[in-house]
Amino acid sequence: MIQQKGFRLLYSCLNMRRQLNALISNGDLSQSEYLVLRNIWLSNNGMSSYGIQGYIKAADLSDILELSRPSITRILNDLERRGLIARNIDSKDRRSIKIELTKAGIEAIEKANRRILSIAERLIVALGDSDTDKLIELINKLTDIYKVILESNGGRSDE
User: Fold this and answer.
1) Is 53 helix (H, G, I), strand (E, B) or coil?
2) DSSP letter assigned to residue 29
């Protein structure tokens, strides 16, 4: 009985994630692209603890998003090809590459942010304040449980 309920719980979580990703991306940006652009935007606006002098490095993005360096490079290459970011050598440290949003990149992240806020507002209206608060509490509790499980496994996700 517990295994069946556990399966249903994890399936529900995965299904929710899949549906949310579809809502957020809507063909413009993948979830990974959004997260990369968002972190570049935060660093360019001095709101990131990782950004140095108003920019962020690919290695920082890899650490923040817990994605491999090759994955970050692939995402950055695609974003640059689409004109959403620019990479330039830092004049103060020629070994560093500055990653900055272009005008099109700023427009893309602002559009995505508006879309995400609109979805969040619709969720709150559909759930109501009380159920929204309960859901937030349960998601936070689930996140804490995930952390405990990971820590008990020495950081490995296998059981």
Assistant:
1) coil
2) -
- Give 111's contacts (C-beta < 8 A, 6+ positions apart): 28
- What is the pLDDT, as a whole number, of residue 123? 92
- Nearest CA to 17 among 114, 142, 106? 142
Residue 26 pLDDT exceeds 80 = no
Give the Cα separation of 73 and 63 in Å (integer): 13
> What does the block give as tokens for 112?
């995505």
Question: Model-level pTM?
Answer: 0.77
Backbone angles phi, psi at 19, to 5 degrees: -65, -40
Domains of the chain, earliest start first: 2-152 (1.10.10.10)
